[in-house]
Amino acid sequence: MQNAKRAFITGITGQDGMYLSRLLLSKGYEVYGLVRGQNNPKIPVLQAWAPEVKILTGDLLDQSSLLRALKVAQPTEVYNLGAISFVAYSWENAQLTSQVTGLGVLNMLEAVRLYAGDDVSAVRFYQASSSEMFGRVQEVPQRETTLLWPRSPYGVAKVFGHYMTINYRESYGMHASSGVLFNHESPLRGPEFVTRKISTAVARISLGLQDRLDLGNIDAQRDWGFAGDYVEAMWRMLQQDEADDYVISTGETQSVRKYLDIAFAHVGIDDWSGYVHQDPALLRPAEVDLLIGDSAKARTRLEWAPSVAFEDLVTMMVDADLAIAAKEKSGA
Ligand code: NAP
Ligand code: GDD
Domain count of the chain? Predict the structure, then answer.
């Protein structure tokens, strides 16, 4: 095993993978990223964003590809961010979600154990757990000790990965930590998630490129933070002497309705009721209850705190999408 700081990231083409790759590069890491598929369209996006990242191919469903990639990357830190992460999709593709988001974690943990050999604690492991595991919440706010009660196939798969990570820590002495992250967003958020769906639509509506936005439950509430802050917490977890689990959240809950208010107001539209339509097809078979995280443990032990307020997050996303919409309008 080598002494230089070397990181291996699964899910590097996703929102968090992109932010984490830049953070680690800025700290002097050599960064390797696992990319799936024979011609993944996100490769050029990743290369433009962080050209220094070394791309390896593999899939969380193919354990031999993970082991092979680890042998090439020789990492001291492994961040397992890869997953099917869209909750709504997980009801329609429950088995695939269970395999990738659940069993994929076991594949990665086992690959790390095999790769590390006798020196298993020398490779630090981060698992991307989720507030979706709290589902039908058993206490408000939720913390590390709150009983898990997932409400979606995605949430169930995340619970499996979460406990498997703890099990590898306890069984093999692996330095394996889970970050129980509440929702975090950015201009790189996938367009299927509600924040980005709204910021894209608001930008396009304000420039006359679109005139309606179909949404599901606009009274849903979430504890939304900024992705750039949350990847910093992941890194801090792996710098601790002891591996552990941490809730990462802002501690404030907001509604989709509030997000709409701020986003539309930012482009000068105070009454958005004529643009937004509720589509019953976008309602979920089950919703989580009041998600709001207590990140006191992370704030004390990791000295971590969120730096971007909700209103600034919304306007950051709308501004980024206004720039994209303006290019679209000009035909660039
Ligand atoms: P994301 O943007 O949806 O990215 C998911 C990543 O997983 C993509 O790079 C995707 O690759 C990759 N992936 C999907 N299937 C794979 C497979 N079979 N093998 C290898 N890679 C695969 O998600 P994110 O928002 O960055 O979130 C990162 C992680 O944190 C996920 O595990 C998510 O569940 C978890 N999480 C996210 C939040 C949040 O609010 N963002 C909160 C809590 C937990 P392609 O680009 O090829 O599709
Ligand atoms: N996506 C989406 N699209 N959500 C909508 C819509 C819509 O048109 N209308 C209302 N919503 C509501 C959903 O019902 C949900 O209550 C809320 O907006 C947030 O939905 P998403 O943005 O899809 O995120 P999520 O909370 O389900 O899941 C995200 O956060 C989890 C952490 O709690 C994902 O990033 C998960 O991977 C992550 O684990």
Answer: 2
